[in-house]
Amino acid sequence: MSKLDPEVVIDLTSAKKATIPTIAPGLLLALSDGLVLALVGWTLNHFLGADALTEPMEAAAWQRSLVTGLMLVPLVKSVFGIYTLGRFDYMERTRRTFQAAFLCCAVLAVPFIVMEGFRSFFVEALSIALLGFAVTYVADLLLIQGLLSSALDWRTPVMIVGAGPQGAAIAEKLQRLPWLGMRPVGFVDDDDSLWQTRVAGLPVMGPVELLAKSPAVAGQASAAIVADMGRHGNDLTGLVRTLPFRQVYCVLGEGNVSAVDATYHNLHGSLALRVSVRPPTGYLRIRRAMDIVLSAILLVLVAPLMLGLAVAIRLDSPGPVMFRQKRWAGGKQTFDLLKFRSMHVDAEEQLQHLLANDPVAREEYMTYHKLTVDPRITPLGRFLRKTSLDELPQLWNILMGDMSLIGPRAYMPKELPEVGDSAAVIGTVRPGLTGYWQVSGRHRTTFQERVAMDVFYVRNCGLLFDFFILCKTAVMVLKGDGS
């Protein structure tokens, strides 16, 4: 499972070998880092180092700095367990890489201060190390996304215990995000009404005890995921002991437990999860300052583009350039969300007519609150939505304080009954131009999945999380993966 879904990993005595040893991905990443760092070292040495320096002493000093900086990268990354991560969540990998780079800075800062004659050496070594962290981080993601995520034999086959809504959500997530490193093969559940049915496209094979009684069924997986711990209560330990797997993952909550700062402790034989609750006041002030500065700069930079789009919208279809819609801002507050108009002016009437006469479209809209093929969208509007250019006017909403660059979805007031009790959490921060759910599936996620992702973001928000979302948003915009 992802680090973003808190879990407890319980190692059992009976061992089962995976199709590919778990050390293989880590070893592959280490070899990849070695090749990348060797290429970086050769390039720097050729253009900036020994090949370009004429003084032997300068060349020797440069080579020492180069070797020191490059060697620190895999050494510190191994200290933070980056090569031994069995699953490859972006946030966890990013967090550990930042921590490794920070430790590298701290290690080199002390001798830089106390050893005056060697300061140039430490500056060069630190610069090379930070470059190495950045390059290997990108290489790791490319390797994971490109090679490992498509190698199904590498992904650990897992059996999900519990075929309810939470189990279905976990299965869908693992299928949609192969870089998490797990491949669900099926469900077991003591609810006999679910037996011999399919959930999230996977078979419900029978009761939980089937895993212990049938080696053929248990042999299909190398680990298990207990999807809903609340159903088992005090019997959880007994349940785990009956599962014939070396590793069992007990999911504590689908977005309902803060996980970014969660750590695990052994309290003299009792496993405990420590969750740090951070006061958000300072973070929210920093984020508001960033919103003002970035939105003002972006508005100036994209003003010519926005003017050109306004003219194009006028020529494309009759109606106003801007589309205004009431959105919820927490509590009883609402605001007018601004967008470039991408639909015909009678879009609402077209929607009601379509939903009344097309049951397939009605079911899709009730599930996702979107339509894959939407006749209401204008020809130019399809381009604006594909490239997310229709959302540029929301920079004004951000500057005025109605929204933030990053945050939960800006829900319509009529959607609040479906949001339910989660509104009390989501409404504590400003809605965002982009957010966690937008970079985690967008239109491929159901409405309730979006709500769960928004709750998770609010309970885990921080500058590092926001940086991760901004980077993924930039990638999605460049790929044209719009709504």
What does the model show?
- There is one protein chain.
- With 483 residues, the chain is α/β, with parallel strands linked by helices.
- It has 4 domains: 22-149, no CATH class; 156-256, Rossmann fold (3-Layer(aba) Sandwich); 281-342 and 377-479, no CATH class; 349-376, no CATH class.
- The protein is 50% helix and 13% strand.
- It is built from 17 helices and 13 strands.
- The chain has helices at residues 23-47, 56-79, 90-114, 119-146, 165-176, 210-213, 215-218, 236-242, 281-316, 347-357, 359-368, 379-387, 394-400, 416-419, 423-426, 447-460, 463-479; strands at 7-11, 156-161, 182-188, 198-199, 202-203, 223-226, 247-251, 262-267, 270-275, 322-328, 334-340, 404-406, 432-434.
- α2 (56-79) crosses α3 (90-114).
- The longest helix has 36 residues, at 281-316.
- The protein is globular and about 80 Å long.
- Mean pLDDT is 80; it is low at 1-23.
Give a quick rundown of the structure.
It is a multi-pass membrane protein. With 483 residues, the protein is of the alpha/beta class.
Task: Detail the topology: elements first, then pairings.
Layout: E1 7-11, H1 23-47, H2 56-79, H3 90-114, H4 119-146, E2 156-161, H5 165-176, E3 182-188, E4 198-199, E5 202-203, H6 210-213, H7 215-218, E6 223-226, H8 236-242, E7 247-251, E8 262-267, E9 270-275, H9 281-316, E10 322-328, E11 334-340, H10 347-357, H11 359-368, H12 379-387, H13 394-400, E12 404-406, H14 416-419, H15 423-426, E13 432-434, H16 447-460, H17 463-479
Helix pairs in contact: 1-2, 1-4, 2-3, 2-4, 3-4, 9-13, 10-11
